[in-house]
Every structure is written in structure tokens, then in C-alpha cells.
């Protein structure tokens, strides 16, 4: 039997993903949180996981380097990748928002938005008929309006603590985010029965977890 390869966003999504895989009998004997290894295998179930940057998962899957991927909806949309989105995994829940010091900034004719997600940002404001200039940052986005780099930000909010600690308010909601299982389109055909079986197992664990409230 051929290996099924899965790219997982290292960071916040790894532990939940490993838990779900464990629940369907897939184990990686040498995996532990502090390991710097990037590839782990279950030699019995023939599953291989590779740990990559969240923003790179879609690239691995779209190009067929892996058959499947676990990725936040945020990174998936931002990537624009041509892949199948097959399961909403239900964890990694957070939301995309516009945030700033004052709601009045959104009334300006043109304003500057700092974000890690320029595509999501431009799409959102274009749909609202608003013209924005987007500044692409790689992190600590909340800082931008505080030092006059931007009028507002588009970023992820989970607990709301980062916004609160920096005196920022939610000015608009964009969409809800959770982790998704994605599939390479060619693998979906060539390894169809394996992938289908895998998806069904994952979906049943997700349904059970949902029933008891994640
Ligand atoms: N509080 C949160 N902040 C950011 N992402 C979150 C949060 N809660 C859940 N997520 C989800 O977890 C995914 C992975 O986030 P993580 O912080 O591990 O990487 P990242 O910040 O997107 O990338 P990196 O830090 O590697 O540049 C996000 O894409 C998002 O879907
Ligand atoms: O609502 P909260 O629970 O406070 O979480 C939201 C924060 O977490 C993320 O940042 P991350 O920790 O990934 O750091 P980053 O700024 O380097 O992206 C996100 O970009 C927000 O800044």
C-alpha cells in the first residue's frame, strides 16, 4: 500500500490534528511536541505527515507534494489554491475582523489597512465598494494603527485579548475561521478509495467531537 501524505500547519493546529489522527488509530511513534523533525510516519497505517508553515500548506497540496493538508480557512482563502476542501475539522476556531482605534476611519474616502492577508482584505473592501491601500505585514499587525502605519487592520481574533491589550476595537466582521482538510485534485482521483476512506473516518470523529462540544 502506498503512503498517504498529509501537510500540517505547524503551530496551533498540530496538536488537534495529531489527536484526531490518533482517534482513528493513526500513531507516530517518534512524534513529540519539542521535536525538530519535519516528517513523521505511521508505518502500519502508511500515513506520513509533514510539518510546514501555515501559509505553505496549500502550496504543498496544490502542487501534489502531499495528497492532503490541514490548514486554517484564513490561509486557504488567502492562498487562492486550486484544491478540494473536504472536511471542516471544527477546531482552530477564530474569526477575521477589521479592527482599529475608531470606527470613523472606515468612513474615509480611502484608507490604509495593515494585514498578513492582503487578498482577503482586498476582496472584503472591494465587495463593500471601498478603496483601500493594503500594507502587507508578517505579524504583530495590531501595532500598525498604534504607530500611524495604517488606519486599521484586518486580522484574526480568537479571545480578543490582543485587541483589548492594544486598545483596538472590532470595526467589522469578515468571516468565521476553522481548520479544514484539503485534498490535491489529482490524488483525489488516483488514490480515491484511500482518501475517501480517510475522509469518512475523520468526518465521523469530527461529528462525535461536535456532539460533545469539541
Ligand atoms: N489566535 C489565533 N491566532 C492566529 N491563528 C489562529 C488563532 N486561533 C486559531 N488560529 C488558526 O491557526 C492557524 C495557524 O496559526 P499559527 O499561529 O500556528 O500560524 P500563523 O500565525 O498563521 O503562521 P506563522 O506564525 O507560521 O507565520 C491559523 O491559520 C488560524 O486558522
Ligand atoms: O484574539 P487573540 O486570542 O488575542 O488572538 C489573536 C492574535 O493571535 C494571532 O497572532 P499570533 O499569536 O499568531 O502572532 P503574530 O502577531 O506574530 O501573527 C493573531 O494574528 C492575533 O494577533
Description:
The chain has eight helices and eleven strands. The two termini are 33 Å apart. The longest helix is centred in the C-terminal third of the chain and has 20 residues, at 192-211. The chain has two domains: 4-92 and 178-211, D-Maltodextrin-Binding Protein, domain 2 (3-Layer(aba) Sandwich), CATH 3.40.190.10; 94-176, Periplasmic binding protein-like II (D-Maltodextrin-Binding Protein, domain 2), CATH 3.40.190.10. The protein has helices spanning 14-23, 57-62, 73-79, 118-127, 143-146, 161-165, 185-190, 192-211; strands spanning 4-9, 39-42, 47-52, 68-72, 84-88, 94-100, 110-115, 131-136, 152-157, 169-177, 179-183. The protein is an alpha/beta fold and 214 residues long. It is elongated, with a radius of gyration of 19 Å. The protein binds adenosine-5'-triphosphate and 1-O-pyrophosphono-5-O-phosphono-alpha-D-ribofuranose (PRP). GO terms for molecular function: ATP binding; ATP phosphoribosyltransferase activity.
CATH domain class name of the largest domain: Alpha Beta
For the termini, the CA-CA separation is: 33 Å
Question: How many strand elements?
Answer: 11
Q: Which regions are unreliable across 5 or more consecutive residues at pLDDT < 50? A: none
The backbone outline, from C-alpha atoms, is: elongated
* Number of domain units: 2
The CATH architecture of the largest domain can be named as 3-Layer(aba) Sandwich
The main sheet orders its strands as: 2-3-1-4-11-5
* Distinct helical segment count: 8
Query: What percent of the residues sit in helical stretches (DSSP H or I)?
Result: 25-40%
Helix-and-strand structural type: alpha/beta
Task: Return the average pLDDT rounded to an integer.
Answer: 95
Bound molecules: adenosine-5'-triphosphate, 1-O-pyrophosphono-5-O-phosphono-alpha-D-ribofuranose
Tell me the strand percentage band: 25-35%
Helix-strand sequence: EHEEHEHEEEHEHEHEEHH
